């Protein structure tokens, strides 16, 4: 007769064994790549990145009852499995990455009750760490109306997210266009529209307040920002933005301006300066961006809309104008850096690399708002050689849009809709400044990866920052 | 007999409320069900628990999803009201008048207005239940834990379940020591500081959702709370019977008034439900019974007339709002985008249908997702063959009880590459515009013209376009588009009238050459013109309200 003690011990042992991992002895070996999201094959990851978890792609999620991953490097192996997604232990992951140059990943999925194991994937670890936090806005990918949304920060080393500001704090107004000076939170700008606190919120040297805006002189509000490296000057565009819609194309919206100009604001005096190149009625200027050394202001420029208001005729070039921060003066002339209009195309969202050598931008058919253009790709201009190349390593069949650099210029974050064509996600790619090439990008790791499917949000304007922002610090 | 009065009272209350909800309030049920999406995911549940009172929100939303079937919804709603009545009336020995007024209180203040939420009703129900529990425990004279500690614990639990405001009502009804009032406020502060700093303090105080417009002040929760407190204390003050009767009478009268006052709102919601489930004939019947001039009703009626191919014959027999009653201009509201999405969907203007469904969703003031909008988004993307996007929406619907099956079936069609096998999708896909153009929300006639040019046989768009120009009173444009030879079985009455009017106004002699001449109609038109010319204030003019000419002259 079997004693109760024996039964209990056996059951306990069985539970322990079953929790150790799936039994893959009878699994089928598949030839194809593992059908998981995100794609982690051949990606280059920073040494301090949060664990990369995976889940089955949406097409097979119904049929998949278990997903398993193991990472191996230098004889060490860590693994995880779960019903809907994996959940790698952060400490184990850090330990694995600490001395790894290459990691092998083995993925298995239990589909229709049968385990299937896929070819081993390889990840490469670079010693260049990535910035600690990424700040972005999460909002439903809508049209004119918006509901609850907010600006969030995610720790890229743990995958955990915290809200910086949610719009229920401002009576459900709109918040957008966050920008940080030198990747630090002590100088930042956020634009708030509607709700209980409309205006441009400025956190300057640790103090938070609304900046004075001369709406009459400006003809609008401060919209798209970018800080000068001195942390005192900030450039804005001021835009009147509209939407138009397609009848047949698989494009949801066209966003266009019928008025846009660029100014530079001195945060000490709250006055702005501009000139007739940046501020006039016969051209549109927008998306200003300072160079790393602060001596140039890059911006997008196009002719105004024709009488027919044909948006397909709106082609933006990227230009630059010299700027002296000490005297707060702009030059009288400007240069065209990317002449997209002569090719019947548009270039937008210029961002200078921190070493001042490169300029990344989006290149697409027309207009200035690439997120709704599937054909939009990221290009890179070598400012030393004037060579332009399409960043083929990071582009996809779908839109690549807003991009930003880490402070050391080793990593680029960009928004892409490559997952499903509707919801933008941040991806990261390592940059080799000597070759001017990017590594294969990977999706931002998050602590609860199912949120990428369950959440109804698109991620806008990914910006790296070094320090955590406490929501209580932004008191107004 | 006396011992049966109590159960009979509650049965009568419950059955009466059930009948009211089932036959009088079913539009309301549908409206609430479609403007939420109860999702069996941790992120959905966790999102609600960031407020004290989140538990009640989860409970109420879980109940609301069953409004999908309005019979079940009626059972739920009537049960909540009756149970609340039981809890309140029991404290007064099941006084029947208090029972009736309590049930009507909850009905009148949390179920009649379309933006009053089930969570408000269930929060008050929890208050009633906790008061019952406390009274019972007090009656049993339990020694452990001490009375005060017990009440504090109960108020903390109630704060977490239904919100600090609900707990405050409980505390006021049961308080013995002054410090027993502190816990609800403490819970409010703890949630504000440690759980969800973003929300204002008042949101944490109310906790659960009483009204869909969360930033708007509403008095109803305080009305219910005041009633509970007054009834609770009515025995201890002078003229208690008078107070009880007086309060009850006020509640009964207010509820009846509120039901009467909101009858038009309920009517519009009924139209919405019928349109959602494509009950076109019933819409027209309802419109004929209730000739109310509300834009939403006019839009639904016109939609039904097009679907039943009766628009040409009946357009101006119903109240019209100009072109806005056919295809509305863009508006950021929930309701207008719901109906707009229906119109564009059936026209094959899928990008527009998708936009309206999205705007509807984003306009929902309490940040809920709408199952109807999500389903429409899934349908639009299936029709456009954007299957990756469609799968996202289907994944969301699969997390619900009531739409999971539909979502799984839709996914099977996608996986098998057989979406054309679903007649609705195939039909609408065939209607989609072939050529791309830009348009703004003021250019619907341009889009309709394009649809008709691409497919002259597309009767739906053709009827819409003709109706659009007639409503715009642009008879010249009507004549450019109108093809009388299409109608082999007789020209629809209003197209005929416009045609006759145009020909008659240009060249009366040419009327004799019209092959499909309706002499009776022409004669009536001529009478109307004669009366109008003689005296445009002639009361006889209103006898011709069914004429298109009347519309031109008066609208």
Topology:
The complex is a heterodimer of chains A (476) and B (555).
Chain A: H1 4-20, E1 28-29, E2 36-37, E3 44-46, E4 55-56, E5 64-73, E6 76-82, H2 90-98, E7 102-111, E8 114-117, E9 121-126, E10 133-139, E11 150-155, E12 161-166, E13 174-181, E14 184-193, E15 199-204, E16 207-210, H3 215-218, E17 225-227, E18 233-246, E19 253-266, E20 271-273, E21 283-290, E22 296-303, E23 317-324, E24 329-338, E25 346-352, E26 358-364, E27 377-382, E28 387-390, E29 400-405, E30 411-416, E31 425-432, E32 437-438, E33 442-443, H4 451-454, E34 458-465
Parallel strand pairs in A: 1-8, 3-9
Antiparallel strand pairs in A: 2-4, 5-6, 5-7, 7-8, 7-9, 10-11, 10-34, 11-12, 13-14, 14-15, 15-16, 17-18, 18-19, 19-20, 21-22, 22-23, 23-24, 25-26, 26-27, 27-28, 29-30, 30-31, 31-32, 31-33
Chain B: H1 2-24, H2 26-34, H3 42-48, H4 54-64, H5 70-90, H6 96-110, H7 118-139, H8 147-162, H9 164-174, H10 182-195, H11 201-206, H12 220-233, H13 240-261, H14 263-276, H15 280-289, H16 295-307, H17 311-314, H18 334-347, H19 350-363, H20 371-383, H21 387-397, H22 404-415, H23 423-431, E1 438-439, H24 444-454, H25 459-471, H26 475-481, H27 493-506, H28 519-534, H29 548-554
Helix pairs in contact in B: 1-5, 1-6, 2-14, 4-7, 5-6, 5-7, 6-12, 6-13, 7-8, 7-9, 8-9, 8-10, 9-10, 9-12, 14-16, 15-16, 16-18, 18-19, 19-20, 20-21, 21-22, 24-25, 26-27
Give the averaged pLDDT of chain B, no decimals. Answer: 90
What global shape of chain A is seen? globular
**Quantity of strands of chain A, as a count:** 34
Our count of helices of chain B gives 29
**How much helix is in the residues of chain A?**
under 10%
Total number of helical segments of chain A? 4
Quickly give the structural class of chain A.
Answer: mainly beta
